[in-house]
Amino acid sequence: MRSSLLDGLGILEMSPEMLALFVGFGLVVGVLFGFFGMGGSFLVTPALLMLDYPAPVAVGSGMAFVFGTAVIATLKHHDLGQVDYKLGVIMITGTTIGIEAGRASVYYLESLGLAGGVISVSYVALLGGVGAMVTRDALNGDGGGGTDHEAADQDLSEYEIPEVAKTIQQTVRIPPMVTLRGDVRVSAWVITAVAFATGLLSGFLGVGGGFIRMPAMIYAIGVPVPVAVGTDLFEIVFSGGLGSYLYGQGGGVNLGIVAPLLFGSALGARIGSAATAVVDADGIKIYFGGMLLIGAVAVGVGEVGSYLGNSTLELVGLVLVIGAAVVVAFAILYTTIVSLRKTRRQATTAVD
Amino acid sequence: MAGLEIPTWDPETALLIGTILLEAIVLYVAYGGLERLFGPYLMKLLVGGEASAQ
Q: What is the dihedral angle through the alpha carbons of A120, A121, A124, A127, rounded to the nearest 10 degrees?
């Protein structure tokens, strides 16, 4: 049964060049995922589409890959005590209902003939907005927005709660109240509302939603950054697992794609996670914000291309996204090695 | 994302997703072991000694 499963799913048909390509691409995505705790889903599916895989296989295999990478990253964060399972369960419930509402909105807009345009504009605005926010915060150097890995070294209870979250916690005190990791006490209804809103956006835009959910957990619920990253990954394990299963039933998950991608990303995620302890987060956040902004431009270019029926423009959009990801991954590796050498030199000079 | 769609039981798909889950866990443990074994050597090679920044 096992050989027929592997054979039927294409794992034995892959050429060595394709295997190397997938392992390498997995490594790049893994570095980004490990460093930022997000950024996997919007890279893999477009890349597979570019390689001429049918859409259900590209989406299904991309989702299965994100599921596997989320399992690895969640195990790492679990070891560090950064996963709040109570928050995760409430978030999963709210998000699932939100996704369904988002889907219903898409079908309603589709019936009005407006779905494609509204989704594309929302996607570009959201990606561009988050990208601009992360870049601005990084340039200001105040450590806010996105993931601040310097904060990961702090005790969770010492973590400073953003003003917006404090106001929400003091204003909305509808029982039941829930105590989260880092001594955060918040109404379960606030968590449910945030989960529903992020799920709605996720279902509406058809994306995993890590880049929406994580800032929402930090700024609206007041969860410490490392816990937001860990809990978000825990949630992706469930949504990604269920989504992969549904796509797998229709033959959309190709193990020949997922296995080598995971092989690379598992290593990349370790490198990315280790780099967070060494690299100045603000410097890299500029790259990440830039990557999201390029992503927004790329989606815009791709949409214009498909509207005009120009396949070259669509290809330019995809190459922009993947090229930006590769550049940012190498920037992380380069900055890590430079930072390590600098620290080493300083330590040697101090000893002398 | 999956929404509220209710999946039906399919042993072959369950085996496929289980295989991916197993691969992820095996890779996590295996790379962890490799990191402990070769990490110090690799750091020496890259920065000329164990990084005090870690």
A: -100
